[in-house]
Design a protein that fits this description.
Blueprint lengths: L2 H13 L6 H21 L6 E2 L20 H11 L4 E2 L16 H13 L10 H18 L6 E5 L2 H15 L6 H4 E5 L5 H9 L6 E4 L10 H13 L3 E8 L11 H11 L2 E6 L9 H6 L8 E4 L1 H4 L7 E5 L2 H8 L34 H11 L2 H22 L4 E3 L7 E6 L6 H15 L5 E5 L2 E7 L7 H20 L1
Parallel strand pairs: 4-5, 4-6, 6-7, 7-8
Antiparallel strand pairs: 1-2, 3-9, 8-9, 10-11, 11-13, 12-13
Helix pairs in contact: 4-14, 5-14, 6-8, 6-13, 9-10, 15-17, 16-17
Length: 486
């Protein structure tokens, strides 16, 4: 035998460890499912925030090994240093920021997407995977009230979806060179910071930004918007885009979408709605009423990893005129020439031509599978439940001694703070937030409004039910009273 043959055999033997056989797979799956089961079974007893000063630092000392340490040891590292530090977004008592999801059915979809590794970027390569992504996009487009001409894609999240929308609007309106400095974008101070980041990434640093005032419920003042557009026109500027928030991150406020849509149309502006948090509330009746006017937008962002309870890594962008999204993102290369055959179905666009990505995770499966298995009804119920829970929390906190609440919530975010009889309220609430983190049973985040420090409660998680809200109220009341007594 030639020496190369011997080497090849040895290499093959070593390489085959990458492809475990049926017995080994069964053992691995059993261990992983046991881990997942223990994780989920113990969740009711786990904190919503792990106050661990080391933050899993020991993980830094674990080398990437030449010889594997085996699954059990690896899972133990996860348990010790990853799943028991930081926020616990899977807890029903996690009420901070915009809570995420983690549907079990979606996890199974992720598992299958990884095992089968269907190619979701190009129709030729993964017609089934692309059909699933596109049918989910068509379903969302119908939910938004968009016409059949709409297109979109499943993004990694709302930030990337906002960026893709801004790039599309930029190219559609030919914003380049000196035109940028004359263009104007309109939003309120409560617009998500990913919008400012996207404007920067899109090369639009030089355009003018108008912060339109809000009413007492932190919603855009539509009359002020119109006045600002008219003033800019008179000054020789070129109003370009208005961005409404359908569910601000600060207070969950929904800008007057319908009126803004009429103004945008009358003045020829691109109308973008950032509904990353709030968009899917259109699945329940009260939410749909609040989101009326969503259909007037040119582009719309919704985050399934927020209000469809998916694991992190799934946002969505919809563009009313799909051609515009395509025009801003389609690209060709010689080495992809075989993929341009349409496979006999010209109606399916490729996500790669509608987004910055080429090769991508088969994201659609994690959404399609839960929707197929349990149907839409439980999603509608969970979203309607969140709206009620926010009202319930707002109502009850109003009468808890010492607390002050913000406006009645549009969606499922409530702001509130403790007003101590003496001393600085901001400093007190900062200490309260810190004490709550040390306690860990609930997690709430904070923000600043009109220069003041406020606490937020966001009911978004699919595991958040009435008893979690009751726990939150009790913990808030006790912790504040204890601090006030010091
Ligand atoms: C969360 C959020 C974003 C950003 O989305 P990511 O998925 O975190 O990138 C944008 N806008 C709003 C209103 C949000 O709530």
């Amino acid at each position: 035998m030639k020496p190369e043959t011997i080497d090849l055999d040895a290499l093959e033997t070593a390489a085959r460890q990458l492809d475990p056989d049926a017995r080994e797979r069964a053992r691995l799956m059993k261990a992983v499912f046991a881990y997942a089961d223990r994780y989920l079974e113990s969740l009711p007893d786990q904190p919503a925030y792990f106050d661990r000063p080391d933050n899993g630092r020991a993980l830094r000392e674990t080398p990437i090994p030449e010889e594997g340490i085996g699954l059990d040891a690896a899972l133990e590292l996860l348990r010790q240093h990853v799943d028991t530090v930081g926020i616990n977004p899977t807890s029903g008592r996690f009420l901070g920021y915009i809570p995420g999801g983690g549907l079990f059915h979606a996890a199974l979809g992720d598992f299958l997407a990884a095992v089968t590794n269907r190619y979701a970027g190009v129709f030729f390569a993964g017609p089934g995977a692309v059909r699933i992504e596109n049918l989910l996009i068509r379903w969302m487009a119908r939910l938004a009230g968009y016409p059949e001409t709409a297109a979109g894609y499943l993004a990694a999240g709302g930030s990337l979806a906002n960026l893709t929308a801004i790039v599309t609007a930029r190219d559609d309106r030919g914003l380049e060179g000196d035109a940028i400095a004359r263009a104007v974008v309109y939003f309120t101070e409560h617009v998500h910071h990913s919008v400012n980041k996207a404007l920067r990434l899109a090369g639009l640093r030089r355009l003018a930004r108008r912060r339109i005032p809000v009413d007492t419920r932190y919603r855009m003042d539509a009359a002020a918007l119109e006045r600002a557009i008219e003033a800019d026109r008179r000054a020789g500027l070129a109003p370009w885009m208005v961005i409404a928030s359908a569910g601000t991150t600060n207070t969950g406020s929904v800008d007057p979408l319908d009126t803004i849509g009429q103004i945008a149309a009358a003045h020829g502006l691109w109308y973008h709605i950032d509904a990353a948090y709030g968009g899917f509330f259109a699945l329940c009746e009260d939410g749909a009423a609040l989101l009326r006017g969503m259909n007037r937008s040119d582009s719309l962002v919704m985050d399934p990893h927020k209000t469809l309870f998916l694991p992190y890594g799934t946002g969505a962008l919809l563009v009313r005129d799909g051609q515009k999204l395509h025009a801003a993102h389609a690209a060709e290369a010689d080495y992809l020439q075989d993929t341009y055959a349409d496979g006999g179905d010209e109606t399916e666009l490729s996500p790669a031509d509608l987004s910055p990505e080429l090769t991508k995770h088969f994201r659609g499966l994690r959404l399609w599978l839960p929707l197929q298995v349990v149907g839409l009804a439980p999603f509608r119920a969970a979203l309607a439940e969140k709206l009620l829970l926010a009202r319930y929390f707002h109502e009850r906190m109003r009468s808890v001694d010492g607390f002050e609440v913000g406006p009645a919530p549009d969606l499922s975010v409530v702001i509130y703070r403790y007003v101590p009889p003496r001393g600085d309220a901001d400093a007190f609430n900062e200490r309260l937030a810190e004490a709550l983190r040390r306690d860990g049973r609930i997690f709430v985040s904070s923000t600043r409004l009109n220069g003041q420090f406020w606490l937020r409660m966001a009911a978004v998680g699919f595991r958040t039910h009435r008893e979690d809200i009751d726990t939150a109220i009790e913990v808030l009341e006790r912790t504040a009273r204890r601090l006030a007594a010091l």
